[in-house]
Amino acid sequence: MTTPLSGTHYGLAAGDYTATIASVGASLRTLQHHGRDLVVPFEADEIRPAFRGATLAPWPNRVIDGRYTFGGVEEQLPLTEPNRGNALHGLATWLDFAAIDQSASHVVLVATIEAQSGYPHRVEVTVTFSLDEGGLHSTVSCLNTGHDDAPWGTGPHPYLTPGSGRVDDWTLSLPAASVLTVTDDRLAPIGLADVATEDDGSYDFRTPRVIGTTFIDHAFTDLARDDDGITAVTVTAADGTGVGMTWANDCPWVQVHTADQANPATSRLGLAVEPMTCPPDAFNSGTDLIVLAPGATATAGWTIHAL
User: Of 6, 111, 116, 117, which is closest to residue 52 (Cα–Cα)?
Assistant: First the structure.
């Protein structure tokens, strides 16, 4: 039997939820509630498009020019975003993860990022997906199995969909007070700005409002949290159906992208919501970058649920 292009598949079910996990990139391929998609899916025998559902590690987002210095040594990563000249979304997105534990409602996947040119560190990445009546809970853990300190960051890449319509029709609630401004051509970070004033408040979704034609491909921070330290982002369709995503303070950043594409048929089908442990280009800025000593671990997690 031929393995699908997206890898081995693990079907999960619990209560009114079902999900399918693809082993390549430890990717969330489908997530449904009562048969309604909560993320933009992709086919089993399809090369995963636009990082849909992928696990991003050992960095999320971009390393500008793919170049950084760590431990006094300048490194050069492969430029996996060639049109912008950046290294995009880490090294784990095309690894084939192996299942080490599974049941009807959960699966634990593991892969090792081997030491290589540009990232001379060996780290073991463990991704857990678990369904229950509260939605899909995901965690990513890293163990530094090498001999030297290793820079680390992570995040997911789901494209949320609340129901009918497209991004322009949906209402977004994003409790972030600051946005990381970027250059138009390469999305290279410039600096933090107040969402209330940047671009006439176009990135301010602290009060829920319709996204409309707004283009977003930005990282946000200064996130409001509830008494338990949880940040919640919600996306709702015009008919009232919706999807929410929550996470704790292990992810002080979130990238939001309106998924604009050159092809109108595939443009703005879902809203990428990507909690991140660090901002874009953290390998250079050092902002919220996790440095793992040999034998040390770091974990971050998030939940996607129906509204």
Answer: 6
User: What are the helix and strand counts (H, E) for the chain?
Assistant: 1, 27
**pTM beyond 0.85, yes or no:** yes
**What is the SS3 assignment for 284?**
helix
Written as six digits, the tokens of 271 are 């809203």
Using the 8-state DSSP alphabet, how is residue 263 labeled? Answer: S
SS3 content of the chain, % helix, strand, coil (to 5): 5, 50, 50
pLDDT digits (tens, 9 = 90+) for 9-20: 999 999 999 999
Could you tell me if 230 and 246 are in contact, meaning their C-beta atoms sit under 8 angstroms apart? Answer: yes
Rounded CA separation 248/301 (Å): 7
39 contacts: CB under 8 Å, gap ≥ 6: 28, 30, 31, 52, 53, 158, 159, 160, 161, 243, 270, 304
What mean pLDDT do residues 255-259 have? Answer: 97
